[in-house]
Design goal:
By secondary structure, the chain is mainly alpha-helical. It has one domain. Helices cover 72% and strands 3% of the residues. It has a two-stranded antiparallel ribbon with strand order 1-2. The radius of gyration is 22 Å and the shape is globular. The protein starts with a helix and ends in an 8-residue tail after the last helix.
């Protein structure tokens, strides 16, 4: 099977799945079976693409050319392939989790939920495999529009307000900032293709390069740099499976993925260094990662704390790119995968706690570790990974980012990274301590699917197995990424080879 056909399948399978999900809405078991089969097929196609890529092939697909010299085209490169693999695999896990969560909590509009999930994954694949800025922009906008119904899923006033914020910021920034940046790039470089080393070198003055970098980094609102971040906490009104995959993996990772791809293939790290444009972005990202961590400390609602933690962690990827070294690009690429597994685990755990105990506030979670030991052990592993501590994969990506900062002599940035790690510990570990080391309260298991003791008091009160198994798998994934970080580094190596004369 040709690489171009595999790319086409990666784009079409989620769309076909969405249609079949809509048609099978009257039969929940069939609908959910279609969802899982679609997710498995998409991951299988990504695996086949990865095998071709590792074997030395570079699959491409040109669909049409609406403007001469600017086709809608797709191509496989290391970062996009990694993003596609991570998003498609975690869709399988989230599909099983969604079955347990949506049924246990009696959620309405489940057919629309699963269909929009599939459409959003199709848009994610378009972003991951985009071969130029036009294709990226189309996929990026499609991802915003297909996830809007998921953010407003509950249909109440709070969800509608959150949806307005979501659309307003993401569409506003992309149309007002990102699109003009793309047009300016076309006028300067005469192409929108992604090329190793960038396409803007020698085309503009340092001031113009700085302006363009600002248009891109703030125009890519999904990267959630402050102050373009309010949409992400607002979107936490969505059901937890949405928060887990789309706002811990697909949507936010699409943002930092595009930001990193633009830095590598549009600007090029040598241009960022020679123009000095990356220096300002380094400070914006550093301020974002520290301030967001401080804000996370103030949040008692668990999903709100996780949301601001995500804002901070996304800034790590932007910072890694802005440092403009090979170590930084490698660390940023790895952090996309490392953070995806860690943060989806934490959101899964938050949803499991709500499903089993109907608890959303951290201050109400005393003693729940003895009622939900599997969930809280998974939470601990995910928290350690996001904080950058063993045995979580985030240890290595954060190490490379810190190494990049040290390599450029920016010891203040190294200090900020250390401070952020301490803040991560400060907002995660009290949750774990409260769960395990405070007197246990009586938490009646109000969810019909929860595993509870007969007396409703002592004993296990874990969420249904369809929730419990996925969060255990993603927690295990954090450890696997720690152990096999070298393989991930090797997979991304072609992206950084020859980018600059600087060492790694």
């Amino acid at each position: 099977m040709s690489g171009g056909l595999l790319i086409a399948l990666a784009l079409l399978i989620p769309l076909a799945g969405a249609g079949l999900i809509a048609l099978s809405g009257r039969w929940p078991n069939l609908r959910e079976t279609v969802t899982i089969i679609t997710a498995v097929l998409l991951f299988a196609v990504n695996l086949l693409l990865a095998i071709e890529f590792i074997g030395g092939e570079t699959p491409v697909l040109r669909v049409l050319e609406p403007v001469e010299g600017v086709p809608i085209a797709f191509a496989i490169e290391p970062l996009g392939m990694l993003f596609g693999l991570v998003a498609s695999f975690l869709w399988i896990v989230t599909s099983f989790y969604s079955i347990g969560y949506m049924r246990a909590n009696g959620e309405a509009r489940q057919t629309r939920f699963y269909a929009c999930f599939a459409l959003a994954l199709g848009a994610t694949m378009a972003v991951a495999f985009s071969g130029n800025l036009l294709t990226t922009f189309i996929g990026y906008e499609a991802l915003t529009l297909t996830t809007y119904p998921l953010v407003t899923h509950h249909g109440d006033a709070k969800s509608v307000r959150a949806g307005r914020t979501y659309l307003g910021i993401l569409l506003g920034t992309s149309i007002a900032l990102l699109l003009p940046g793309i047009v300016a790039t076309w006028m300067l470089a005469g192409t929108l293709d992604f090329r190793a080393g960038g396409i803007l070198s020698g085309t503009a003055s340092d001031g113009v390069v700085l302006l363009l970098l600002g248009l891109y980094m703030f125009g890519i609102g999904k990267a959630a740099l402050m102050p373009i971040h309010r949409w992400l906490p607002a979107a936490m009104v969505a059901p937890t499976p949405v928060s887990a995959l789309l706002h811990a993996v697909a949507v936010v990772k699409a943002g930092v993925f595009v930001a990193l791809k633009v830095i590598v293939y549009v600007f090029g790290i040598d241009l960022l260094n020679s123009s000095g444009a990356g220096a300002l972005l380094v400070w914006i990202a550093t301020i974002t990662l520290v301030v967001a961590s401080v804000v996370a400390l103030t949040k008692d609602n668990l999903k709100a704390r996780l949301a601001y933690s995500t804002v901070s962690q996304l800034a790590y990827v932007v910072l890694a790119g802005a440092l403009a070294t090979q170590w930084g690009i490698l660390g940023g690429g790895m952090h996309i995968a490392m953070h995806a597994f860690g943060k989806i685990t934490l959101f899964f755990c938050a949803g499991a706690i709500y499903t089993a105990l109907h608890k959303t506030e951290i201050s109400d979670m005393q003693g729940i570790g003895r009622a939900m030991p599997v969930t809280m052990l998974a939470f601990l592993i995910g928290a350690l990974s996001v904080a950058g501590l063993p045995p979580g994969g985030g240890t290595w990506s954060k190490w490379y980012i810190a190494l990049a900062a040290a390599e450029t002599g920016q010891l203040i940035i190294v200090g900020a990274l250390m401070l952020s790690t301490l803040l991560n510990i400060a907002y995660f570990m009290p949750i774990v301590a409260r769960a395990w080391f405070t007197p246990r309260a009586i938490h009646p298991a109000r969810s019909a699917g929860a595993m509870a003791a007969p007396d409703g008091g002592e004993g296990l009160k874990e969420a249904p197995l369809f929730c419990l198994i996925p969060l255990s798998l993603t927690a295990l994934g954090c450890i696997v990424l720690f152990v096999f970080a070298g393989e991930l580094q090797a997979f991304l190596a072609p992206m950084i080879d020859g980018l600059s004369t600087k060492g790694r």
